[in-house]
Fold this sequence. Notes:
The protein is of the alpha/beta class. It has a single domain (4-137, 204-289), classed as Alpha/Beta hydrolase fold, catalytic domain (Rossmann fold, 3-Layer(aba) Sandwich), CATH 3.40.50. It is built from 10 helices and 11 strands. Strand 5, helix 3 (102-113) and strand 6 form a beta-alpha-beta unit. The longest helix is centred in the N-terminal third of the chain and has 15 residues, at 76-90. It is globular, with a radius of gyration of 19 Å. The relative contact order is 0.15.
Amino acid sequence: MQSKTETIQLDGFGIRLTTWGDEACQPILFLHGFMDVGASFHSICEQLGHAYYCVAPDLRGFGGSDHTQHPLGYYFFDYLFDLFSLLERFSRRSICLVGHSMGGNIASMFAGSFPERISHLVNIEGFGPRGLPDDDAPDQLRRWLTDQTPHRFRVYPTLEGLAKRLQTKNRALTDLDAQWIASQMSRPISGGIQISADPKHKRPSPMIIPVAQYAAFWRRIRAKTILMIGEQSNFGNWLPAGVDATAELDRRLSNFPADTQRLIVARSGHMVHLDRPDAVVSAIRGLLAGRSIPSPL
C-alpha cells in the first residue's frame, strides 16, 4: 500500500505526517520513539491501511518536522501538547493510540489525562523513566543549564551507509525497508547524508519525572490496553545499578488497568515494531476486535 506524506501546522510547528488508508476509515494514531520517525511503522500500517486510516506523525524536532527555536531544546510535555492538538484536528471521537518507547510513554500519559479520548491503547516498550532518585534533581537541572557541548550527528557518505547502520541495530530490517526508513529520517548535506533530527535532542533533560507520577497517569487509563514487551528487551539497561529489572517492570505494569493484556513478543528486542511487525499487527487487530491475544506472541 502506498503511503502519503504531508506537513501540517500545529500551533506554529510544521509537523510531517505519514498516512496509509482511507480517511473515512477508523483512525489509528502511531507515535514513534526517541530518534525515530513515524515512517518506521510502515510495515505495520501497510497491512492495517486496508481497513483503518493510519496516521504517524514525526514528533517535533524529528524527521521532517520543524525544530524548536528554543536554545535549551525540548521538554517532554511538548509532545503531549502536540498530541492534544493533533487529535483536536483529526478526531473528536475516541481513538486507538499506538506508541513505541518514548511514544508509548506519551500515549499512556495522554490516555490517563484524557481517558474519554482514547478507546484502545497499545504501548510497546514505553514503561516510564529510568527511575533516578529525587535527590539527583538539582544536579540534573544544573547539567541542563550548563551543557555547552556542540551536539551534532554523524555524516554518512551515502544513504546506503545510514541504512546499513539501521540494520546493524535492527537485524530484521530488509535492505529495502532500511533504505526507505533512512530516507525518511535524514537530509542531504555537504559531504553526504545526516539524520535530520534536531541535535538539541541530545541535551540533558531539565527535570526528573518520578516513576510515581507516571504511575498516576497509568492508573487513570480506561482504554482497552495491550502492553508489548520484547523477549530480549533492554529495559533493565536503563535502570539504576542494583535494581531488579523483572521485579521493577512488574511493579510498574501493575498500575495499568486490571484487564490489561501483557504480551511477550518472541524474537524481538526493544524495537518490537521493526523486529516483529507481524506481532504488532496481530495485537492491534485482536485488541480492536475484542479478542484475547496469546503470549508469547
